[in-house]
Write a structure and sequence with these properties.
Layout lengths: L12 H19 L3 H8 L2 H11 L9 E5 L5 H10 L2 E5 L9 H11 L7 E2 L13 E7 L8 H10 L1 E11 L6 E2 L4 E2 L8 H8 L17 H11 L5 E5 L2 H10 L8 H11 L2 H13 L6 E7 L2
Parallel strand pairs: 1-2, 1-4, 2-3, 4-5
Antiparallel strand pairs: 5-9, 6-7, 8-9
Helix pairs in contact: 1-2, 3-4, 9-11
């Protein structure tokens, strides 16, 4: 099979309304974004296509056995199965409130002709698969929400086959912008800083900020790679510097959530050459975001 090039994601009204009432009503006020806009973003097929495009710089999804760690509402799993004929699964823990993605993902899968059992109730720290199960392990905007980010990376490498690709996309908290709150901030150098900053400088509720793994930065990633190299033969294919440079220079990035504010600000900066200089300066300071950790497991 070659996949369905004309596939269009079907979102039942029951799913959409539930996402507005959960994630939309939780994250909307926090980031000063309309609840329906949050729902539109997390249910976006365009986002699934863009993330596939980023991944396929390194490994074709077509026919690949793939796993998404933190499948959310299942839009990647569903789109990549239908669009690219990927043999794909996603893990997402069952929860309540704005964490109630697991049941909605299964409902969305059924509406789009995908087996709901491909969305599995599990966490990245405890993947319910044997060693060497997948050609691709992918995750986006999840690692900062996990209980043990280092264990998630190790588990993901465990289930990856030799020759397989791991790609994790997550914020760099030594950067300048947080998408959850939609605020600019100085580099986060100790964990207590960001909740304090959110509360006293931005005037926002810091409850969610306390849950974020703000230790995630380029230095943390390099330390994890050094640890992983004791047990696996891995090749680092990128950390996202090239992605950041291209997006800053061309402004070719989607305005999901509050990123429209970033694009509007960058439009005021000047021409592409000025933005490229700014981007390179940020890269030298290790402040690019997101980090796009891409590894090949050689053995």
């Amino acid at each position: 099979m070659n996949g369905d090039d004309g596939f269009k994601l079907t979102v039942p009204a029951t799913v959409y309304d539930a996402v507005v009432a959960t994630q939309g009503d939780y994250f909307g006020p926090m980031s000063k974004t309309a609840s329906y806009k949050v729902a539109d973003d997390v249910l976006s097929q365009d986002k699934a296509e863009r993330q596939a495009s980023l991944l396929m710089h390194h490994r074709d999804l077509r026919g690949a056995r793939a796993l998404e760690v933190g499948a959310g509402l299942g839009t990647n799993v569903i789109t990549w199965i239908r669009r690219y004929d990927a043999d794909m699964f996603g893990v997402e823990p069952d929860g309540a409130g704005f964490d109630a993605s697991f049941k909605l993902a299964r409902e969305l899968a059924i509406a789009n002709g995908v087996d709901p059992e491909r969305i599995i109730n599990a966490t990245g720290e405890h993947l319910p698969f044997p060693d060497h199960s997948f050609d691709i392990v992918f995750s986006a905007n999840v690692l900062e929400h996990t209980d043990d980010p280092a264990k998630v990376l190790r588990e993901s490498l465990r289930v990856l086959r030799p020759g397989g690709i791991l790609q994790f996309v997550f914020p760099n908290y030594c950067s300048y912008y947080d998408g959850h709150y939609g605020v600019f901030h100085p580099p986060v150098l100790w964990r207590g800083f960001f909740p304090w900053y959110v509360k006293w400088i931005c005037g926002r509720d810091p409850t969610f900020a306390h849950t974020l793994r703000t230790e995630l930065n380029v230095g943390w990633v390099k330390a994890q790679i050094a640890q992983l190299e004791h047990d696996y033969a891995i090749e680092v294919l990128g950390l996202g510097k090239d992605v950041f440079l291209e997006r800053m220079t061309s402004l070719d990035f989607a305005t999901w959530a509050s990123l429209g504010r970033v694009k509007r600000l960058l439009n005021l900066v000047g021409n592409a050459a000025v933005r490229r200089f700014l981007a390179n300066t940020i890269i030298v300071l290790r402040g690019w975001t997101p980090i796009v950790l891409t590894l090949r497991k050689n053995a």
